[in-house]
Amino acid sequence: MEGFVHSQAETVRRMLSPGHCSKVVLSVMDTGVGIKPVDQAKLFKLFGCLQATRKINTKGIGLGLAISKMIAEEFGGEVAVLSEHGRGSAFYASFEYQEDVSGKKNKSELDLKLEAIQQRQLNKARINLEKMTNSGKELADGQRILIVDDEAYNCEMLKAIIQ
Question: Domain Histidine kinase: where (predicted)?
């Protein structure tokens, strides 16, 4: 079955005067198998993976969309999916930003915001991991955990969560 994936980024500019924001909208659309409504709710939760099937090749551990949603919301935006099972999906991410009409960039404020987002993600992931592993079992002396993922960021995130 032939299909397509289309990605797009657009800036919705508002009045370029102090106090006004512009909006960036990112979208990715495909003609894949689509996502059932019951599964759509799982997509934006930490470790919210879909079950792999013959038609669906799920990859990853369920962090990407959850992290994307947190980042978008931190910048006054949102992440959403529109999907019809059997017909394809469209993912949208948007965020607002205030354009600096003076030409000066304040990178330190952005860096601080991103660091705060990362810390909150890490804290939420730790809490979720504790909930998932709250079975009363602990590793015996000398036992170790092997973390394997094709994404280096996922390995680092899991390592930080477990420590």
Answer: 24-99
